[in-house]
Amino acid sequence: MPMIKEAHLWNKIMKAALAIPGVCIDRQVFLSSTFKDALPPEELSQVLELRPAVVIKRSVIDNLATRLIKYHTRAVTTLSTLTGLPGGPAILASIPTDLAQYYYHVFVLAQKLAYLYGFPDLREKDEKGKPQVTDDMMDMLTLFVGTMMGADIANKVLRDICLDITVQIAKKVPQQALTRSIYYPLVKQVAQHIGVDLSKNSVSKTIGKFIPIIGGIVSGTVTYATFYPGAQRLQKTLHKQMDLLGTESSEAKIQIPTDDIERLVVKALINMSLMNERDKEKKQNFILQYLQHTTLIDTEKKSFAEALREGHAFKVDFREFKDDPVCSTQLMRLLTEIINMSNKISINEKIYLHKIARELGYSTSDLEEFLQEK
């Protein structure tokens, strides 16, 4: 299935930036180097095993985050100014490099801020124990960048993932599989948002680069005007999530297995797609994309795909989601994403969505908020 053009642009830039040496931050090394001179060994051990907020004041964490933001802002602005100096058509060849270098600093800063505010290591280890970049890590970086750009959906999904991390742990944050397939379509929506923003903002920088000297100033100014406020936006968002990541409840846990959740979600999405014939192909592609990234076995995926093509409806007990606030929220967002693919909401869609919202315990105002999310 072809990817959306804007999301494809973002993925190309992200992969180029992630190919730059040093872009992936080792959580243990970063936190150790940051706090080793300020903490005794036993407290440093707690920071590494749990999170900094366990032993460090929030004001100190905020100050460290501010210093990191200022450092990387200076570095990326200087770099952008220098790479913007040459003029002429030949500079077009360096634009991908410029963007990759910009997002190198974005990714490095985002990882450092995430680790300061309590996230586990975004990388996973392969069979030989070597850390590697995974799809989950790329999805998390996409959400961080979306948050920096002011995408509301990125903020909401990021908050849900923080809650998801919390409900899956007792006293130690898991070191792998931050995201689940239930987030996949929403992460891709954020990627599309970033791609659109990149397409718009690159125009001013491209024009400026044709003018020697002035081009460098334009490039540096645009970089500063986007990087610094974006970094502050991410820092504020992560600060707000600290309470979630700081929870150490041994009683919190997912009530139903992931594959059961995925089956229920697929059934609900198929049912919703049948409520309105408009944009049928677009809705089916959305569901098939979600289905492809579930953990269900291939025979189940094929069975659901066939049911989707044949217009087969399913009976779903939505009360199963009530004990999992993360998944119920994501389910509502996925369902409203299906609805918003058509210009006009049908009466059948309204009735079905109201029924689901009622069973999940959402109010009418909650439902309106879901429908207004873009």
UniProtKB/TrEMBL annotation:
InterPro entries for this protein: TerB-like
Protein name (database record): Co-chaperone DjlA N-terminal domain-containing protein
Taxonomic placement: Bacteria, Pseudomonadati, Bacteroidota, Bacteroidia, Bacteroidales
